[in-house]
User: What shape does this take?
Amino acid sequence: MATAGHVDHGKSTLVRALTGTDPDRWDEEKRRGLTIDLGFAWTELPSGVAASFVDVPGHVRFLPNMLAGVGAVAGCLFVVAATDGWMPQSEEHLRILDVLGTVAGVVALTKVGDLDQDTVELAGLEVSEHLAGTFLEGAPVVAVDAPKGLGLGDLRASLDRMVSATPEPADRDRPRLWVDRSFSASGAGTIVTGTLTGGPVRIDDQLEVVPLGPTGPVRVRGIQTHGADVEVATPGHRVALNLSGLGRHQIGRGQALVRLGQWEPSRLIDAGLSVLPGLDHPVTRRGAFLMHVGTHAATVEVQLLGGLGQVRPGERGQARIRLPAGSALPLLPGDRFVIREAGRDETVAGGQVLDVAPVLRPGRARPDPTVDRVIRERGWVEPALLERLTGDRRPASVGRWVVSEEARAAAEAALREAVATAGPLGLDASSVDDKTRALLPHMADLEVTADRVRRKGAGQETPAAARWVAELESQPFSPPPPDPTIPRPMLRDLVRRSIVVEADGLFFHRTAIDQAARTVAALLSDKADGVTVAEVREALGTSRKWAMPLLTYLDSTGVTRRRGDVRVGGPRLPESDGPTGPEALPEES
Assistant: This one.
């Protein structure tokens, strides 16, 4: 949990009283009695649960440090001094925690030791009025005085009840640690700290640093949580990681450690935007905006979506946010952020990430955090990329893609139209892309034969082609030329399907080739030293015009080999059907 509240209302004093640890780490903080940077402490609550505190500065000058400390917390200890009452940073801290999605909290009404009961009660009522309508409405308000030890037991009990009622942090097996501190320890090397979310981290895990991390992975050498060495850290804990593979100056606040290959760092996001109700002006695209997410802060451009020119105080809109070069962040839909305007030095809005890699133009974009919307807008997306974009795992529905119903229907319609346009021959399967090819097994009305895509049951040849093929079969060794009305693609398809064989520009039926091979085999069974062209021509009952192309084809396919003026058997010579000379003739009766 984080502390929150106006400067000098006793946040650090209260943390020290609860934990025994002074969260003010710097000499300047101790000298000035003012928290400047984040402080860290932890304690064991009455139920035995360990609770970590991120103590944040209350002064407006150090608000960026405060924002770096509250980005990953689930609860808060909200501090208001009864002596001062509600102050400007009380309001700003409350609004920041509210837009960041903080779900629970306890209010400590401090410095009550020298006040009478009526004054304390009035101060508590004032605080409750300011909390109305926020996540802290109805939260317990506990009167305490840390230096005098008043109310600390009640406060511990309230914190314990809050922790018990807070949902367990989600474990999606996608760890992300926004770094809030890095330093070197003697004999250990680089150490970073942060609040772990999304998934576990184990010793020897390989992680990467984003944005602008060193090339290559870094290895987790050691893990501590609540001051103890552990083998694995789970989401929702304050964690210190001892890293190998980088120096302390290569990593620092504003960067994140994530598991290799699990994230799609983005510089362009679509988001929902909630403008704070207390502003005295609307939010437009004009302004020097700072975006705070996790522990990262960056100057961003904000473009309102949906045709909006402005979003008034207390209203909501949608925006496209562009981060600067070198600030690609590991974000997911649902991540919360804060927008401040540097010129006015004020917090103007909070938001929720809806899309980490928008593909539609701003004028058409209507983002929401659903996975189905990402699939619909992209049409075809590989499961690994979809998981990096949304954190959700979906199985591939077509080939290696997750495909929207709209994209699938459009692709199927386009394929059917292409097949119909191609005619009886069908569509050349090599002409379609990988996505269209992946659709084919899912389309019962289409089939692929001999690398052609056709409608099932459609005729494969034109009538002229069918007649010509029949003539080739009936006149195997004096085949007619192709009918001129037969399309050339259909001729090629007949050859590709081995119905017709082309030899030196002449066309033979497949059965003619097989018959010629058997005839040559029979001749060679009588004349092992080889047969001449004339002998083959005579055996086939054809002319040299047809015999020479046939023998050339048989040579090329290994049925025969040319040796001078004769042909001898090749490795693919079929078995002989018997002699072909006079002895093969039946005896005269």
Remarks:
- Residues 347 and 459 are 72 Å apart (CA to CA).
- The mean pLDDT is 88.
- Residues 405-422 form the longest helix (18 residues).
